[in-house]
User: Fold this.
Amino acid sequence: MASDISFATATELSAALKAKKVSAVELAQDAIARIERHDDKINAICVRDFDRALQTARAADLALSRGGRGALLGIPMTVKESFNVAGLPTTWGFVPQKDFIAQTDALAIERVKAAGGVILGKTNVPVALGDWQSYNEIYGITNNPFDLGRTPGGSSGGSSAALAAGFGALSLGSDIGGSLRVPAHYCGVYAHKPTFALCPARGHTPPPLPPLPSNRDLSVIGPMARSAADLALLLEVMAGPDPSFDGIGYKLALPAPRHSALKDFRVLLLDSHPLLPTGASVRGAIETLASGLIKAGVSVTRQSPLLPDLAETSRVYMRMLLSFLAASFAPEIYAGAQAAAAQLAPSDDSLAAERLRGIVLSHRDWLIADGRRIGLRAQWSELFKSFDAVICPLMPTPAYPHDHHEPQEERRILIDGRPHPYVDQLVWPGIATLPGLPATALPIAMSDDGLPIGVQIVGPWLEDYTPLKLAELIEREFGGFTPPKAFVD
Assistant:
């Protein structure tokens, strides 16, 4: 059977280390043994760095013996392949970059190492971090530990699968279209999309570009874990300005959570979107959560005129997201999109049409879209005067079977047996991404098929600790992560 430490949280492991109940080397060895025993089936860890991890663990034990108190001291963890780690490959799944070796650590990695984290290796991603499935020609396909025939999510799918399988207590990921939150939903773990620009992304850079300070629109980096409290622990390590860019230190004082008791929270709870149905299993899980919250004394509201227009949000998000992504498209692909966009009827406001328009968006039109975003952000600000958090789905279904058909626009997702455009699933991740709001993903149920179901808690701008605290209280009241039965040994 798995040891008591295999699925323990980072907070629990830290306490055990300080109490000398276990050593950092033993923690690293346990995680490494699990990877060697199980990862041939899951394929979550695409780059192993075990020798350096054990060296770091030995150094952590020495530091602990001398009273060291690093926030992550001795904690085994993984990082998404897209982060530069000195001496290891960074490919983003691009075959021409399979031999690229990072020379320096990403800033987030520097901070993790300074806090004493023991990095076991890097986790698999889709090409260009552009899918909710994690596969590429360099490292192959990552499978969901709850059902190997299904996706673990993406683009931080290797990280979510690693956490679910007990391959370390923490991981680092990134998110522009749900890439932290969706894998957490599919694998039954926790993730936090921070307020935009809270965590500097220098060194989270596609090769062979230099690791310069980043101001990538919409995109963030953030923590993943098996508990909500661990998300806050890792976020505190990662957050704060980039000193090479801002010229100041990175310590940052975020507001405390609005409440410390579950019964004090005012929640707006959503389970439907005007542009995409929500599957019955997800709706049912949210309904059960709503009943539990009400019994616990939470103020739960199901609709409000303060809520920004979700359809408008989705259309603006599609334009701005694809405008950003298209900057790296090959000239022939961009030219094809220009020709296709010119054929769109002005009345076509489908999400596919908005994505196509976004690819060829002019700077003038981008500024118009940004103005619409600013208006929506102001509406969110007003909403959070009356509510502390919004709880809503992350995706319309639990994890689905692998589907690597290209292009993605031709794929279909089955929602209660009916096909819908695969890429339209962006509507739920986008409600927090477009305005740059913090959002915490947490597991709340298991489907009849034994698949995890999660939700996201969207919070106010820069009030990251409010959704994190609510997630922690929900976990304490109703339970949280459950290990996949096939990998508990």
Observations:
- The longest helix spans residues 363-386.
- The two ends are 4 Å apart (CA to CA).
